[in-house]
Amino acid sequence: MTDGTAEDGGRPCPVCETPMYHRHCKYVCPSHGVVYDCSDTFY
Fold first, then answer.
1. For residues 23 and 29, is the Cβ–Cβ distance under 8 A?
2. Backbone phi, then psi, for 11, in 5-degree steps?
3. Which InterPro entries match (predicted)?
4. Domain limits for position 38
5. How many domains is the chain partitioned into structurally?
6. Most CB contacts within 10 A, which of 20, 21, 30, 40?
7. Dihedral angle computed from the Cα positions of residues 19, 20, 22 and 24, in that order, rounded to the nearest 10 degrees
8. CA-closest candidate to residue 12, choices 24, 23, 28, 26
9. Dihedral of the CA atoms 12, 16, 22, 28 (nearest 10)?
């Protein structure tokens, strides 16, 4: 069971397609760092 903040493989990174992690209102790519945050509109 995940709590939504764990490394559960979410949306793919738009640059490298690696699953991003959801952390504190941000999507973080393990290779590129923060890609999206709450103020961004996407998907």
1. no
2. -60, 145
3. HVO_2523-like (IPR049701)
4. 1-43
5. 1
6. 20
7. 170
8. 28
9. -160
